Amino acid sequence: GVAPGDIALGKVHREWARIGMGTPVFVKQFVPPPAFDLGSCKVEIDHFIKPAASDSRIEIKDEDIEAVFSQRFDKQVLSNSQVLVLDFEGKTLKLTIVGLAPVDIGDGKAQSKVPSGMFTTMSELDLQNGPSGKLHIL
């Protein structure tokens, strides 16, 4: 278990945050500011472990993975370039956040990109195929 006062980070989290094993870190509570919800989130999806050249390509329906993503990451703060790992139907997938935009409030202004925000079930999800070419989003 994790002792009181300690924080446990997995390999993916440590790599993304550039924190070594056993490295002391200072943390403080984050209170999301007003209008922090994401309007859209662009995610690149690929295999977590690079497939062999001889492995066949797998296909995943976008609506199936969207439902799982929305359930698992609702109310989660996401940042550009953040890597997530998801077990989807027995397949370990690597999800990389490649674009975030705020909620469009309909004021006619062009939507800007944001570095981070809170994903909600109302956020639009744009799924893209990863670079391996071995996973195809339908």
UniProtKB/TrEMBL annotation:
Ranges in coiled-coil conformation: none
Entries under Pfam families matching the protein: CDC48_2 (PF02933)
Domain CDC48 intervals: 62-104
Keyword Membrane attributed: no
Keywords, in A-Z order: ATP-binding, Nucleotide-binding
Keyword tRNA processing appears in the UniProt entry: no
Domain of life: Eukaryota
SUPFAM superfamilies hit by this protein: Cdc48 domain 2-like
GO molecular function, one term: ATP binding
Protein name: CDC48 domain-containing protein
